[in-house]
From TrEMBL:
It comes from Oceanidesulfovibrio marinus. This is histidine kinase. It is a multi-pass membrane protein. It comes from the Bacteria. Residues 164-380 form the Histidine kinase domain. Its main location: membrane. GO terms for cellular component: membrane. GO terms for biological process: osmosensory signaling via phosphorelay pathway. It holds the Pfam family HisKA.
Amino acid sequence: MPEHTPPPSAVEGFCSICPVSMEQEGDAPSCQECIRYRDLYVNAPLGIFQCDGERRFLNVNPQLAFLYGFESPEQFLANVTYVTERLQLREDELQDALGTLQREGVIHNYEVQLQRKDGSLLWTTHSIRTVTATDGSIIFYDGFVTDISEKKELEKLRDDVARMTRHDMKSPLLSIVAAARLLNKRLTLEGEEAEMLQDIHDKGAQVLEMINTSLDLFKMEQRDYQPRFEPFDMAALARSVGRSMLPAYEEKRLRFEVVVDGPEKDAERCEFEGEERHIETMLMNLVKNALEAAPEGSTITVRLNRNETFCELDVHNLGAIPKDIRPRFFQRYSTSGKPEGLGLGAYSARLITEAHGGSISYKTSEEDGTHIQVKLPCRQPKK
């Protein structure tokens, strides 16, 4: 790896720990405040860094160098120039994070893998804040990095156990569904008994479908799932999703509407392509999130459009995404203010969208609420 000349101090003319003029204090910080904070900086159990507006490292503490596998801050700065050069980020993820930092001035607990000196990957959280001058111009960024590899190992263990449990549940459920179907054919039942038997069959089939979906999502995480592309009416599917959540809408006095854009005379239909059962799961998660976030008495809108290239979906509600989860909104376990929430809805929506070769993004503000925008490729010419 080529060596780089270490950059100058982050705050030339000032102490790198607190805003005390070097001209006042000499070449090294001597005030008790500086000495105390420098000790915290050097001995902190988390990585700390400063970088300039171009994301070039300016200062790092020993723990950050250790996280990257280097022996000292000096060795680290001689070999690593940019904050992002060893982070495992897709371009769209990087742009989302930078956009949040520009808008909000801070990013909290952004989960990302970094590549260490030996090539191994380490799971970390990054929290970054903007340090500005009195005129609003950016002086530098402060960053704080925490090792969460143990947490990720526990999450993986939990996911493995859950996946094996779901897999093992399939056999008895298949037997229950098959037995209910066989009994329905062989027995002549009427009234309540017939309804109970049919209910056993339907509920068993429903749980079996949920298990199959969760196992497919695991394959999507491994990028090992090939959807079965078939045309279907997305407008009808969206209306069906809305009807299934009617009691929850009525409780908050919400309105639900499906709008089909485009020049077609038949505004009741909008043909999408993909695996319908997974697209339904994606939409149900997005609508459920919108339902929970929408203010009482407002409207949730599902807007559909299809052109020659993309099938487009926009789910809008008047609630804004909490600032603390915006940088990681589509990541797993990203939730805020919902004690019973798992933070998997937007994550699974992203998995399903990307498995279909599409993209998902959001726009959010206190004034306009939140738009979740999905683009799926069109494989067949528009009819």
